[in-house]
Design goal:
By secondary structure, the protein is mainly α. Helices cover 66% and strands 0% of the residues. The protein has eight helices and no strands. The radius of gyration is 32 Å and the shape is elongated. 8% of the residues are buried.
């Protein structure tokens, strides 16, 4: 602990495992072992208090701290963009590099929430800052399919009662006879009734 404490006092940061400096790497390995013991619940409350007191944010590895800081910067950029543009960033021909990168950021967060890997606090932060972020814009193809389905329903809807009556009749016939109704010269005239 003394090496990690000295390193923090001298450099203003916690030691890194792959720094190239043997003394720093030794202190970093000790810190790594403390994190592992802590994550397994094998550190005493007294030891945890001591580490908190002397090393500050020792529980979070440096990479995780820098990832969190990077994520927060992207969130700030995203909030500023949506406030200025009044919409979510898009990856279109007219999108600039900054807008394109923000659109990719949102897509990654959507993928992570679908996969269950987006931490709840980040999802909540996105929900609060950028309402509608998790609704993907409808593609041209999806819009065309939706419109075709609506047009097909418009053609079928006036006949819905007749269609449903026919289905009910077929279901009743199948329940009564144990087979599907048939068409053709062998089928009785009232087989659908």
């Amino acid at each position: 602990m003394a090496r990690a404490e000295e390193f923090l006092a001298r450099h203003g940061r916690l030691p890194k495992r792959h720094s190239g400096d043997a003394a720093e790497e030794t202190a970093a390995m000790w810190l790594y072992s403390m994190r592992r013991l802590h994550s397994r619940g094998e550190l005493s409350a007294e030891r945890i208090k001591q580490l908190d007191r002397t090393l500050g944010n020792w529980r979070t590895p440096g990479r995780a701290r820098s990832e969190e800081a990077g994520w927060n910067v992207r969130m700030t950029d995203l909030e500023a963009f949506t406030a200025g543009a009044g919409r979510l960033p898009q990856r279109g021909k007219n999108a600039g590099e900054h807008e394109w990168s923000l659109a990719l950021f949102i897509n990654r967060q959507r993928r992570r929430i679908r996969n269950g890997t987006l931490p709840a606090h980040r999802a909540a932060q996105l929900d609060a800052a950028v309402p509608g972020w998790n609704t993907k814009p409808e593609s041209h193809q999806a819009k065309r399919v939706r419109e075709q389905h609506a047009a097909a329903w418009d053609r079928v809807e006036p006949h819905a009662a007749v269609i449903l009556a026919g289905l009910a009749s077929g279901a009743a016939f199948t329940a009564r006879t144990g087979r599907l109704p048939q068409r053709g010269k062998n089928a009785g005239e009232h087989e659908w009734s």
